[in-house]
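Q: what sequence does this backbone want?
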């Protein structure tokens, strides 16, 4: 059973439908106790880091998720669900994350120029990723594959070994995916990334 955590801040239904279309047993749950009976956990996230981490903590999800990870079960973070795994974010002030991956969440600098044009923030739309190491998520996924991003803040990992894929936007080469043991996450949205995204979900579901 794949448990999608509902802490009122995630892109839940599209993630659920994607896993269902691949034939996996999946549930969306706002009950922290359901994490304990799950084989795998998905931590989605849409919105501001500050609001997401507060909702997550207030909902009582932290300890069950840490226990899930400690026993070696797979977890997948998506977008802000990835950012929350880091030490802290500067979005709307300094806010502490879960501290599972050393590093910070930073805002894209203003005024970035590419090919003579000013780049917009948020970084929104299709961009290609550079795969650094063959995370279980990237089985049969080629480097330079295009995936879908929507974010104004990006993860800066202290340990390069935690980065499984990167992406470049303007002057910033940022972490697009992380992998540490049974912890996996993507800054991009697999549920919006068509065939590549479904392949990533399939790989996670088959772990």
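A:
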């Amino acid at each position: 059973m794949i448990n999608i955590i509902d802490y009122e801040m995630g892109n839940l239904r599209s993630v659920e439908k994607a896993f269902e279309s691949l034939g996996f047993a999946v549930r969306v749950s706002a009950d922290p106790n359901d994490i304990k009976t799950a084989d795998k956990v998905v931590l989605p996230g849409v919105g501001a880091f500050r609001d997401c981490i507060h909702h997550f903590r207030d909902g009582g999800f932290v300890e069950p998720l840490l226990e899930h990870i400690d026993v070696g079960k797979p977890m997948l973070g998506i977008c802000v669900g990835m950012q929350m795994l880091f030490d802290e974010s500067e979005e709307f002030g300094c806010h502490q994350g879960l501290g599972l991956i050393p590093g910070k969440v930073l805002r894209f600098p203003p005024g970035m120029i590419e090919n003579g044009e000013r780049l917009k923030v948020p970084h929104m739309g299709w961009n290609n990723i550079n795969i650094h190491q063959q995370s279980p998520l990237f089985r049969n996924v080629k480097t330079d594959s295009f995936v879908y991003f929507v974010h104004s803040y990006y993860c800066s990992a202290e340990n390069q070994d935690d980065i499984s894929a990167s992406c470049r936007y303007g002057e910033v080469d940022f972490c697009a995916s992380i992998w540490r043991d049974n912890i996996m996450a993507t800054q991009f949205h697999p549920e919006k990334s068509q065939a590549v995204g479904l392949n990533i979900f399939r790989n996670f579901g088959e772990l």
